[in-house]
């Protein structure tokens, strides 16, 4: 079932390895199945090279397996919680990307000091609570944090990045951009004191990016 969604989710895992966001089997991507109370997610602890479309697992929005040969990701209940409580979200990504996870280890939000941050995140990238892996506590922390923010990414304390998007590709983009600005802001702090962008300019940049960046619709 849902071969098209399985294919998208399987292929997007290649973006995580391609951008250096994951080590070994850490991290995961999921997608909501359009029009259904279902999600597609990777199996737990399987090498990225083995993540074919057929290896993906279909679950309901309480994390129960509906179809699949493998056990689903350990973060399935967290993803399911986010889909239940953020109906506008179509894709979720989790990584332990190194620079962003370093900020998460320090429990420090990444301040909005770059135009690229204002564009993609609309402000700082916030920190969510520490939560144990396996249940839906991570999902609760992700939803509670992102509801008070324009950011599509949250740094879960002592853990790593959870990024969301209207599509799974948009969630992957947010995870890629999160690591990029985490790295640059870290480098800036080695050189001096990064200067936050004034709030009104953050708003203008974010607004322009959402309305005018890229190509107009065909
Ligand atoms: O964060 C964790 C464990 O710390 C997990 O998200 C792993 O990074 C990936 O687990 P699977 O998706 O392979 O179960």
Order of helices and strands: HEEEEHEHHEHEEHH
Catalogue the unreliable spans.
Answer: none
Count of distinct structural domains:
1
Q: Cofactors and ligands present? A: 5-O-phosphono-D-xylulose
Separate helix tally: 7
Compute the number of strand runs: 8
- What kind of sheet is the major sheet? 8 strands, mixed
**CATH architecture, please?**
3-Layer(aba) Sandwich
Mean pLDDT: 97
GO molecular function: aldehyde-lyase activity; L-ribulose-phosphate 4-epimerase activity; metal ion binding
Cofactor: Zn(2+)
EC number: 5.1.3.4
Enzyme class: isomerase
Summarize the structure.
The protein has helices spanning about 5-20, 75-85, 100-105, 115-120, 135-145, 170-190, 200-210, and strands at about 30, 40, 55-60, 65, 90-95, 125-130, 155, 160-165. It has about 220 residues and is α+β, with helices and mostly antiparallel strands.
Task: Using brief descriptors, characterize the structure shown.
218 residues; L-fuculose-1-phosphate Aldolase; eight-stranded mixed β-sheet; alpha+beta; binds 5-O-phosphono-D-xylulose; globular; single chain; 8 strands
What can you tell me about this protein's structure?
By secondary structure, this protein is an alpha+beta fold. The protein is globular. The two termini are 31 Å apart. The chain has helices at 3-18, 76-85, 98-106, 115-121, 137-146, 168-191, 199-212; strands at residues 28-32, 38-41, 57-60, 65-67, 91-95, 127-128, 153-156, 160-165. Helix 4 (115-121) runs antiparallel to helix 6 and helix 4 (115-121) packs across helix 7 (199-212). Strand 3 and strand 4 (65-67) form a beta hairpin. An 8-stranded mixed β-sheet has the order 4-3-2-1-5-8-7-6, sandwiched between helices. The chain has a single domain, classed as 3-Layer(aba) Sandwich (L-fuculose-1-phosphate Aldolase), CATH 3.40.225.10. 5-O-phosphono-D-xylulose binds at residues 25-28, 42, 44-45, 73-75, 94, 96, 133.
């Amino acid at each position: 079932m849902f071969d098209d969604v399985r294919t998208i989710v399987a292929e997007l895992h290649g973006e995580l390895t391609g951008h250096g966001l994951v080590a070994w089997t850490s991290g995961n991507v999921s997608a909501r199945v359009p029009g259904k109370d279902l999600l597609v997610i990777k199996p737990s602890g399987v090498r990225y090279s083995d993540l074919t479309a057929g290896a993906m697992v279909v679950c309901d929005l309480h994390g129960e397996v509906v179809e699949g040969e493998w056990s689903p990701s350990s973060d399935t209940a967290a993803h399911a919680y986010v889909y239940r409580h953020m109906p506008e979200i179509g894709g979720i990504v989790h990584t332990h990307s190194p620079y962003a996870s370093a900020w998460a280890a320090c429990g420090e939000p990444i301040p909005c000091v770059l135009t690229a941050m204002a564009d993609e995140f609309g402000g700082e990238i916030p920190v969510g609570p520490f939560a144990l892996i396996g249940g839906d506590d991570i999902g609760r922390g992700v939803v509670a944090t992102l509801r008070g923010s324009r950011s599509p990414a949250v740094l879960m304390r002592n853990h790593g990045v959870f990024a969301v998007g209207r599509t799974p590709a948009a969630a992957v983009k947010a995870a890629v951009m999160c690591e990029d600005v985490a790295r640059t802001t870290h480098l800036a702090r080695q050189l001096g004191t990064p200067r936050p962008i004034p709030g009104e300019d953050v708003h203008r940049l974010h607004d322009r990016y959402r309305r005018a960046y890229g190509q107009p619709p065909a």
